[in-house]
Amino acid sequence: MEPKTRKIQEILEKITNAKEKNNWDEINSQLLKKRLQWLEENKKMLEPQGTDVRRAYTLFLIQYLDLDPAKVPIIFEDETKIIWRSFNWCPVLEACTKGGFDTREVCKKGWEQSVQAFMEKMNPKLRFIRNYDKIRPYTSYCEEMIELLE
Length: 150
Fold this sequence. Notes:
53% of the residues lie in helices and 15% in strands. A hairpin with a 3-residue loop joins strand 1 (74-77) and strand 2. The longest helix is centred in the C-terminal third of the chain and has 20 residues, at 103-122. A four-stranded antiparallel sheet has the order 1-2-4-3. It is built from five helices and four strands, in the order αααββααββ. The chain is α+β, with helices and mostly antiparallel strands.
């Protein structure tokens, strides 16, 4: 089985299990542990210059998720907010499509908490926000942002 297919199958099984039990804790705790461990081991990669929102975008999407910046183009940026659109290949999207699950529910319940924890570890005032009115497969991209609270 090819790696992408295996990844989709693993995620599909996790989603199915979480839905059956109505409990997303296992997904959240696994992702939280993995992401925070990576951040601890790689925080030296954090660029010293730039806004906190730009640094968070770069560290999480480009370095941690290893995404091509062209696949997650920034559509708005200022000192306190950065908004991008994700067009990248996504195993969660693929698993939801294959299993008939709603990405709006799955991404919110299973994948958002660990991203927020990652942001807060970088700066407690950072907030990760996903626009659930603009999420695949209902649109051609997922719109997400990082905001620095006052």
